[in-house]
Amino acid sequence: MIVLNDVSKTFDTPSGPLQAIVSASLEIEKSDIYGIIGFSGAGKSTLLRTINLLEKPDKGTVLLEGDDLTQLPRQQLLKKRMKTAMVFQHFNLLTNRTVFNNVSLPLEISGYPKKQRKERILECLEIVDLLDKVNEYPTKLSGGQKQRVAIARALANNPKVLLCDEPTSAVDPQTKESILYYLKQINEKLGITIVIVTHEMNVVKSICHKVAVMEKGTIVEKFHMNDKSYKPLTNISKILLGESNPVIESEVVYV
Amino acid sequence: MFDNIISVLPEIQIAFGETLYMLVITVGFAVLLGLPLGTILYYSRPGSVIKAPILNALLNGIVNLIRSFPFLILMVAIIPITRLIVGTSIGTTAATVPMVIGAVPYFARFVEQSLLEVNRGIIEAAESMGANHFQIIWKVLFSEARSGIASSITIITVSFLSYSAVAGMVGGGGIGDFAIRYGYYRYQMDVMIFTIVIIIIFVQILQFTGNYFVRKLDKRL
Ligand SMILES: Nc1ncnc2c1ncn2[C@@H]1O[C@H](COP(=O)(O)OP(=O)(O)O)[C@@H](O)[C@H]1O
Ligand SMILES: [Mg+2]
User: Fold this and answer.
1) Which residues form the ABC transporter domain (chain A) (predicted)?
2) pTM of the model
3) Which candidate, A33, A98, A191, B39, has a CA 20 to 30 Å from the CA of A13?
């Protein structure tokens, strides 16, 4: 489904070049819930953003269903992006649009037939149980509700992949569970592949099938969450696979 | 006791009409040309959406250049251009030329500033949906910045009402010019005060209407 091949990305910063990703390779299969975990600044978001080429890698290839996105002309790249929707930590809803019209935006962008838009928007809002908020503006919603609108919006164009950047990091613990629940539902019922970037162990533990651990721009290990024979290399993976004690866990989770 | 005022009422009416004419043309062009200019300024800024440093530096330079002219000097300096465009350098229409030239970069800066206040994350969200540049500008930037832009329109309308008084220098007419002619040159204090009251009421109406739209367009509160 998604193959990152030896991807590197360096940023020019005032204090010199900064290697955000160093030769990262990753394979994500259809209907995976793939976690990318690591500390803040490890390069997780940058890596996620190379998948829809919001960040253009300096080196390496990004294959989406066999097409190398780094080689696609812009027009075709935009088409691909319609099928790889994104969910953000801070929701990024349009403040001057109602919930309904926020979900409408991707449909307007993709040129979805006008007559069928309303039906599609309501379908998506139903998935996240927000039919009662259709005409509200985002300011009136709680964090969890905003994220659910963002998820509905991401689903609008029937994406194949959902790229989630810390989707539960700006909401309270209970809401976290509900967001993860919806993501899981979407994965199971609609078969949508989910890539989820997080610094929270419990997110990976509760929904990810596979996980990659990042440190300083490098993917240091990759494994299946249910692989009993896997020997974890890092503290993060030791905790994820339940080998470490919970005291360290709480330290690592919230660094 | 209102003799002076009553006798000049017809003239005030004409002057007010001239002011409206100058304002409508000035603000109209400012929006028509300043909106795209401000958008390009924003869009091509370093670290913004597209990389076009030369275009950005060039437009920035032009905008700064025009904005550094005091209005009165701008008006005199561009007389040849005014002649070229409207055929004469005297009269109300001629006066609108420097007003438009002054207002476009002024408004463009306001637009740029309003767009800078749009949350980057929202633009990124639109990019992640596969939006092209036109869609990002039209559906996201303008939608999110609309109350800021409405507020900018109000500000330039009020500012250029005041600049339109200077336009009297080139026979532009208008209510400000009228106040100077009667109140200042002819020492008719009552006419002067009456005219100023009209201007004050007009500014209040402009501001009130502007504020109304700004509030109406902003859904963040
Ligand atoms: N646009 C950018 N310009 C310069 N540096 C950046 C940019 N985006 C990210 N970085 C840097 O790259 C590194 C990785 O960032 P990021 O991918 O956001 O990490 P994470 O999501 O794991 O916290 C950080 O050091 C960050 O400061
Ligand atoms: Mg991040």
Assistant:
1) 2-241
2) 0.90
3) B39
